[in-house]
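Example record

One chain of 156 residues, shown exactly as stored in the release files.
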Amino acid sequence: MLLLLSLGLAAEPETIVGDDGLTIRYFVPHDVDAVRAVLDDTDKVYGLSPDLVSYTVEDEGSCDAVTTEARGLLSNLRMHTERCKTSDTSWRDRLVSSEDFDQYEVSWAVSAVEGGTVITYHLKAELSIPVPDKVMYAKAGEAALNQLNNLYRSLE
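Predicted structure tokens for this chain:
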């Protein structure tokens, strides 16, 4: 099942929910280096998410250890993740431990295009409680778009 939404926001993101998770492609009219500078800063990336109740970032060399508490549908969701830069243009957040998630992986990638940069955000997650994927990815997509919109505004 594939769901495609085009939202009427300034950056006109494309959101796709499929069997492999949630993917958002988001254009910003800014140089790829400016976008990369934001995504290189783990503290800044997490600070852009209005759905986080709290977060901490600890530098662990090539990766960062991140502890988050986010607003969920019924209760706050907590997890420990590892955020690593996987190339000059990509990053990955992977679940280390959580009582609320059985699976959680986010990848970010940027690519220069005419007039700006496309940010590709991909989430594959599974909650430890039975929640339909459609419901979970709808909430997660809303949270990711809020974070991407804040990233866009931080570049203005």
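Notes: Residues 133-155 form the longest helix (23 residues).
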